[in-house]
Amino acid sequence: MYHITIISSSIRTGRKSHNVALYLQNYIVENKLGTVELLDLKSYNFPLFEERLQFQEKPKIATLEFAEKIKSSDGIIMVTPEYNGGFPASLKNVIDLLYAEWEHKPIGISTVSAGEYAGSQALIFLQFLLWKIKAFTIPATFPIAKVQEEFDNLGNALHKSQTDEMASVFIKELLWTVKLTKKEYYQSDVIRF
Predict the structure, then answer these.
(1) Where in this chain does the record put each NADPH-dependent FMN reductase-like domain (predicted)?
(2) CATH number for 21
């Protein structure tokens, strides 16, 4: 079984994207698709980015723990709302904090909005940033429009069958990419680098 980390990126009061992160966590566990850990950036309360972790003289323990959790994950799901056409500073902050930990890491993106466009503009900016730091963003996404009408505060999907169907495609693509990027795959007789 692969270990998946879900990053809930919003630290905003009354956030709704966190409900999507809870849903994805429950979906993976209930369907026995892997182990999963939810990293809530609101609980980390990272300071504004001043320097990458690798160059910090005295990094905080929470920062080191966060970096290790990202590094040890087989795959990552980033759940982000769209704010004014972009993603929140809290997510940009933590992406910039690390560097090598993101390289070649399979990442699935779930964008969320209160409107009809499901965070499509945030998706473009986030994909570009992740490509720039050599992460593997998967082709499938998990976009949620009108999030306030789709999930309750415990992460239960209000249109469960439709949401589960979309989650199935998204998670299968992530797990396929994880398998593809594992070292043992590259060291097999099929592909040699």
Answers:
(1) 4-146
(2) 3.40.50.360
Q: Cβ(127)–Cβ(110) under 8 Å?
A: no
Average pLDDT, the chain: 90
pLDDT digits (tens, 9 = 90+) for 21-71: 999 999 999 999 999 999 999 998 877 766 666 766 787 888 889 999 999
Q: What is the dihedral of CA 119, 121, 124, 128, to 10 degrees?
A: -110
pTM, entire model: 0.90
Return the amino acid letter for 71.
K
- Does a structural domain hold residue 191? no
Question: Taking 60 as the threshold, does the pLDDT of residue 136 lie above it?
Answer: yes
**Which among 128, 127, 108, 106 is positioned nearest to 177, based on CA atoms?**
106
CA 155, CA 164: separation in Å to the nearest integer? 12
Q: CA torsion 61→67→73→78, rounded to 10°?
A: 110
Residue 78 · residue 91 · CB < 8 Å: yes
**pLDDT for the residue numbered 57:** 76
**Which residue segment(s) compose the domain that 66 sits in?**
3-186
